[in-house]
Specification:
Layout (H helix, E strand, L loop, with lengths): L3 E6 L2 E6 L10 H13 L7 E6 L4 E3 L4 H4 L4 H19 L5 E5 L2 E3 L1 H7 L3 E5 L3 E3 L13 H9 L1 H10 L3 E2 H6 L5 E3 L1 H16 L3 H14 L4 H14 L4 H12 L13
Parallel strand pairs: 2-3, 3-5, 4-6, 5-7, 6-8, 7-10
Antiparallel strand pairs: 1-2, 8-9
Length: 261
């Protein structure tokens, strides 16, 4: 791939958007490669994915304005769908995804980060949805995920004003989970991913499904969803091994490859 680097170490995969001369801006080619890279993940072995940007300045500076500037209404709608389809695939990936945001995360970059389960950033990170200043709306899920993450009032303020915010404000409003010095960001993401990967993969996947799908349901239906996923963990290797070792005070013997039992 020309713009995506995908590396796997143990049970953790790291996907790097590598178009630093364009601040990793998302054009059609990058979105297509991102989609292909997600499809290429070996979900029988990978238990956590990190997404980050190449270079020191930018996670993803946004969608490629040069490409968008000449689009027709129909082409604009199709471009929005292309981005939304890829980001939704990331959001619904069975395994947890961590965004390690280094530098600019504007427009499509912020939308990409928001499609991940957890966002951590460097202290030089900058977030924003600047689209209305360009005469368009956010098109890759920004109007929907931002409101769900930080509340409708704050989301409307950020989107209507097209104002960028720095890492400390992103932390304050709950857009990111933690802020690190630039040189500590990727090691922190790797440490977090390794901690996730050592836990029972069936249970972790079930928790992601319960949270993501439960947020779209009423409480009674959400609790029924949780009950079913809770029950589905029983009689699995992970549950038998984990509880057995807890009772005997031994360390669990991890099953290296994910299965459904």
């Amino acid at each position: 791939m020309a713009f995506i680097q995908l590396e796997t170490q143990g049970a953790v995969a790291t996907l790097t958007i590598d178009r630093p001369k364009a601040l990793n801006a998302l054009n059609s080619a990058v979105l297509e490669e991102l989609d292909a890279a997600i499809d290429a993940l070996d979900l029988s072995a990978v238990r956590c994915l990190i997404i980050t940007g190449g270079g020191e300045k930018s996670f993803v500076a946004g969608a490629d304005i040069g490409e968008m500037s000449t689009l027709t209404k129909a082409e604009g709608t199709a471009f929005g769908k292309k981005g939304n389809d890829v980001f939704r695939k990331i959001e619904t990936l069975p395994i947890p995804v961590i965004a390690a945001v280094n530098g600019f995360a504007l427009g499509g970059g912020n939308e990409l980060a928001m499609s991940c389960d957890i966002r951590i950033c460097s202290d030089n990170a900058v977030f924003g949805q600047p689209e209305v200043g360009l005469g368009i709306t956010p098109g890759f899920g920004g109007t929907q995920r931002l409101a769900r993450l930080v509340g409708p009032g704050m989301a409307k303020q950020l989107i209507y004003t097209a104002r960028n915010i720095k890492a400390d404000e992103a932390l304050r409003i709950g857009l990111v989970n933690a802020v690190y010095p630039v040189e500590e960001l990727l090691p922190a993401a790797q440490k977090m991913a390794a901690g996730i990967a050592k836990n029972a993969p069936i249970a972790v996947r079930a928790c992601k499904k319960a949270i993501n799908e439960g947020l779209e349901l009423g409480m009674d239906d959400a609790l029924a969803l949780e009950e079913g996923l809770f029950g589905s963990c029983f009689e699995t290797h992970d549950q038998i091994e984990g509880m057995g070792c807890f009772m005997s005070r031994e360390k669990p013997k991890p099953k290296p490859v994910f299965t459904n039992n």
